[in-house]
Amino acid sequence: MKIHAANVADTKPATKADAFDWVSVEQSLDARGNAILPSLLDADQCRSLAAMYGSEHGYRSRIVMARHGFGRGEYKYFAYPLPPLLDRLRHALYPHLAPIANRWNRLLRIDVQYPPDLDTFLGRCRAAGQTRPTPLILQYGEGDYNCLHQDLYGEHVFPLQVAILLSEPGDDFAGGEFVMTETASNGQHADVVALRRGDAVVFTVNHRPAAAKRGGVRKVAMRHGVSVVRRGKRHTVGLIFHDSR
């Protein structure tokens, strides 16, 4: 049977997502609140997405971080319909993440369970008035950074998120590391996540469960950000699975 090129492109993100060792991803998320998906995108896909930042079309808003106390740099929220590649990635990754999110909520005694497919979950968001798309593209230049934060946009929050680095460390920029902090009753620590161009990091949006020293489960608060870019320009795509008001 002949397969048309367009159909191959349509199925590639799902095929790539299915190929990851999701047991190891889940173990890493349980232990550190983040996990790397290596080479989720190839170099051409990264360059094409980064080049989109200069366009005036396809976005619903542009945010200059310094105006809001978010750090330095800027980002744009995509409008619906999303770029096809990002839409396919969002749909391909969600079914692997929903079971992890559901298990975490059960451990934290949160009375919310997520449906197995993204469209049903987005329908839940729309019914609550969360209709604006949240996937975004970020641009940092020399001296820019992103303050530690959580991406919470409304009543319905999916507890995992994906960021994809579109630029090559060392070649396109220096500094600008992805950073996560963990805060719990026993203290705080930071984790610097090393990424190459095309790598994605899955990470905790808000809270995650962790083993308590005396047994049981404790709630750990997580935040993420980007350290200061020392040189060059850095682009990243963020895939958030809940929409906003």
Automatic annotation (TrEMBL):
Record bears the keyword Membrane: no
InterPro entries found in the cross-reference section: DUF2086, Oxoglu/Fe-dep_dioxygenase_dom
PROSITE patterns, per database record: FE2OG_OXY
Superkingdom of the organism of origin: Bacteria
Keyword Metal-binding: yes
Similarity comment text for this entry: Belongs to the iron/ascorbate-dependent oxidoreductase family.
Protein name stated in the entry: Fe2OG dioxygenase domain-containing protein
